[in-house]
Backbone:
């Protein structure tokens, strides 16, 4: 079956513009995670969705970052008024309840 | 606060030269410790989950072990295709969040 997919694979934007990143999880996976990975760094947790429960937003670095998920399907991560420090790879992962995560290929964001 | 550190930051091995990577953690209540492999430009790929001290898991040239404070990823007779960044993560019982270490960049030279 298909794995986690993310789009776009690459995004170049100008400082101050808004961007929207998309994640399609594996079908049947109730949990969905967003991470940020700066060049040469580890994964930084951003937000976690589990079924219909309230999302865990504790990792969002500022109010410019937001994410939504419709049921147990697609999720979008939105970054408003992008800054150069937002440049990174944004990774999405999904998992069945209590199981390990399966990652997508990531979206490489470059803010000029 | 849950924390994960990994050492060394980078490791260069000759093909066939066995070694170990370390993952040290502090967690309020360990639900699971996870090892991933990440190739350049790709998302992490799941390798192992360990749940309790003393547990071991093997896959080809890799073996992961777990104690109450750390985990080791042993690489036996590595090949150049084992070159990658190896990430360790922990999950606690309080939530579903995963805390990742910074990774170890492994280079295996032919």
Residues:
């Amino acid at each position: 079956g298909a794995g986690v997919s993310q789009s776009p694979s690459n995004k170049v934007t100008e400082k101050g513009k808004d961007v929207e990143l998309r994640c399609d999880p594996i079908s049947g996976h109730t949990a969905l995670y967003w991470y940020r990975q700066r060049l040469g760094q580890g994964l930084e947790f951003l937000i976690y969705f589990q079924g219909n429960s309230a999302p865990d937003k504790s990792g969002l670095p500022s109010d410019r970052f937001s994410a939504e998920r419709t049921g147990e399907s697609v999720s979008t991560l939105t970054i408003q008024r992008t800054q150069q420090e937002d440049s990174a790879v944004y990774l999405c992962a999904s998992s069945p309840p209590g199981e390990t995560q399966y990652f997508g290929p990531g979206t490489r964001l470059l803010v000029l | 606060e849950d924390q994960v550190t990994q050492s060394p930051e980078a490791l260069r091995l000759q093909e066939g030269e066995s070694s170990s990577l370390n993952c040290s953690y502090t967690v309020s209540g360990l639900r699971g410790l996870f090892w991933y492999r990440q190739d350049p430009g790709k998302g992490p790929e799941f390798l192992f989950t360990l749940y309790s001290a003393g547990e071991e898991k093997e896959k080809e040239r890799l073996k992961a072990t777990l104690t109450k404070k750390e985990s080791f990823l042993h690489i036996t007779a590595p090949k150049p295709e084992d070159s990658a960044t190896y990430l360790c993560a922990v999950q606690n019982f309080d939530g579903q969040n995963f805390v990742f270490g910074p990774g170890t960049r492994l280079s295996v030279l032919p």
Q: What stands out?
A: The interface with chain B takes residues 4, 31, 33, 35, 41-45, 48, 50, 56, 58-59, 91, 93, 98, 100-106 of chain A (CB under 8 Å). Chain A has a mean pLDDT of 93. Residues 9 and 107 of chain A are 5 Å apart (CA to CA). The beta strands of chain A are 5-7, 10-13, 19-24, 31-37, 44-50, 65-69, 75-79, 88-95, 102-103, 107-111.
